[in-house]
Write a structure and sequence with these properties.
113 residues, mainly alpha, 2 helices, rod-shaped
Length: 113
């Protein structure tokens, strides 16, 4: 899932819980006011628990994503250092003066660097 979908998903779940509270209120209001308040009151701890879980999960997700990006940056820095070291300490292998065309051979040479 893309990061931009998270607020929409969270909002959707919170709206669903609000809808459940409204439906409980409508269903139990005709029976008794106390039953409607109790049914609505039972959803409050569920909402608090869900919000806490969502916040902790999001923080853990952001922390993990940050670590992954940090590892990627370290790997890129290591590769950059290796390329710089290779370019400075070793002569360029592509400076060969003989080519397949000048030597009379047909076909090409594939050089892997």
């Amino acid at each position: 899932m893309n990061g931009s979908h998270k607020p929409v998903l969270l909002t959707g779940i919170l709206l669903f819980l609000v809808e459940i509270a409204i439906l409980c209120w409508m269903k139990f209001y005709t029976i008794s006011h106390t039953a409607a308040w109790v049914a609505t009151g039972l959803l409050i701890p569920i909402l608090v628990i869900f919000s806490t879980f969502a916040a902790l999960f999001y923080l853990k997700l952001v922390s993990h994503k940050s670590e992954v990006y940090e590892d990627g940056l370290k790997e890129l820095q290591l590769l950059k250092d290796q390329v710089e070291e290779f370019g400075i300490n070793r002569p360029h292998q592509g400076s060969n003066t003989s080519s397949p065309a000048s030597s009379g051979r047909a076909g090409g040479v594939i050089q892997v660097v």
